[in-house]
Amino acid sequence: SVAHNTDPEYSALGTTGSAQANCNFYSPMNLGYMSRDYSPTINLDGKTIKAYIYVPSSLAVLSPSYYAHIQIHSLAGGYTFGGAIDLDTEGWNLMQWAPAGIGVNEVDRVTIVVGRTAPNDWSGVVYIDEISYE
User: Fold this and answer.
1) Above 90 in pLDDT, residue 134?
2) pTM of the prediction?
3) Which has the least CB within 10 A, 52, 60, 89, 122?
4) In sequence order, which residues have a C-beta less than 8 Å from that of residue 115 and are 6 or more positions away?
5) Which residues contact 40 (CB under 8 A, 6 or more apart)?
6) CA 65/CA 43 separation, integer angstroms
7) What is the pLDDT of residues 8-20, one digit of tens each?
8) Peptide bond into 28 cis (omega under 30)
């Protein structure tokens, strides 16, 4: 589930809020995600998407580590992803990606995905903040 966090400690740049993602990864659940839809579509051609994700110590110590990436969707190009990072460093981590290819000029959804590659169960909270493109 996702909630609105107002504690500045869990805001990447000290702003007034972030998205609090309450995670519960137990087999066979391997992915969790949070999306924003755009209508009208946005043009990401030549732009970089950025997002911050807060990794708690209980998640950072897992081996193999969990990961996060940015995913976009367009009617012309379908789903494309990039900017993957391992969630093995406690605190705020920056994801960034400059998408290219078919459909990047008409993106209708941006998604932050958290996942795992091995069945190491974990439940807890990650925070996602300052999703932007420039």
Assistant:
1) yes
2) 0.91
3) 89
4) 30, 31, 32, 66, 67, 68, 69
5) none
6) 33
7) 889 998 888 899 9
8) yes
Q: Which amino acid is at 13?
A: L
Whole-number Å distance between alpha carbons of 37 and 108: 6
**Tokens matching residue 111:** 């998604």
Buried b (16+ CB within 10 A) or exposed e, 12-40: beeeeebbbbebebeeeeeebebeeeeee
The per-residue DSSP string of 30-48 comes to -EEEEEEEEEEEE--TT--
Higher-scoring residue by pLDDT: 118, 37: 37
Length, in residues, of the chain:
134
Evaluate whether 17 touches 2 at the Cβ level (below 8 Å). no
Residues 59-97 have pLDDT tens digits of 999 999 999 999 999 989 899 999 999 999 999 999 999
Q: What is the DSSP string of 6-74?
A: --GGGSTTS-S-EEEEEEEE-TT--EEEEEEEEEEEE--TT--EEEEEEE-HHHHT-SSPPEEEEEEEE
Q: How far from the centroid of its chain's Cα atoms is residue 134's Cα? A: 17
